[in-house]
Amino acid sequence: MKMTSSTTDLLATGQRVIRREAEALSALAGALGDSFSKAVELLMAARGRVIVSGMGKSGHIARKIAATFASTGTPAHFVHPAEASHGDLGMVAEGDVLIVLSNSGETPELADILAHAKRFSIPLVGIAGREGSTLMRQADVGLLLPQVPEACETGIVPTTSTTMTLALGDALAIALMEHRAFTPDHFRLFHPGGKLGSRLLKVGDLMHPNPPLVPEGMMMGDTLVEISRNGFGVVGVTDADGLLTGIITDGDLRRHLDGLMTRKAGEVMTRGPRTIGPEALAGEALAVMNDRKITCLLVTEADTGTDAGRRAIGILHVHDCLRAGLS
Fold this sequence. Notes:
The chain is of the alpha/beta class. The chain is 44% helix and 16% strand. The strands form 3 sheets. Strands 2-1-3-4-5 form a 5-stranded parallel beta sheet.
């Protein structure tokens, strides 16, 4: 194929496509009405799962919509309409809700899954670009895409239509998520891996329980043995009630080298160490360690800042945060 477009022409095409799709999304936002609220209410009432289906490009969009639902607290999965005709209809059961995508609303491969929904009274949300199409007629709630041109000049390549469908799926998912008061803690449960998961990890998820602790009255000879044994390079110091009063680091050891072995832990420790609570985000702990140029934080029953007087329940090392993907 002979290439005739200049660099300027290529840039103009890219800008035209993005502007056209942006205009389509604006038109979609303006076209939303009561049917959108009804669709959300229908999905909210589902006792089972949300089943999303579509053929071709709509199928690719359907997969993403199902994944977004599932990751934001709405159990969902994708069912391929052609596979549904060969046994996968068993994946669509009473209590589920169907979302079916088809720009034309007449995709022949959808016939069996639509019939299945009708036969077993499975609620159906249809998303299509043609009013009065088969899909829109059979849907309990129909979401009609506005009539806007595709991004290509021929008007045949699914572009603005699929972009609008994807955005509409996102809108449904976020509406459900906000209605259910879905929190970052819930999100973390569905995203334990990757950058998103690591950003939502809490100190309690990464800390080592049973932190190294010595009483204030322990002689420094025995304290040094404990520091060497635990591998963290620090040790917490507690009072007679077992509450944290200080910490001993390598800096404290250097400052008290003269006569160190004749001293007790309470004489060498730094009082009021910086601590953190188990419910704090691990990223916050890493920021504290970076800011203070320290490698460990003692974890107490609650975030006590620089105050002592609480029981230490764990210890967090900077390497624990880095291994979890925080940086």
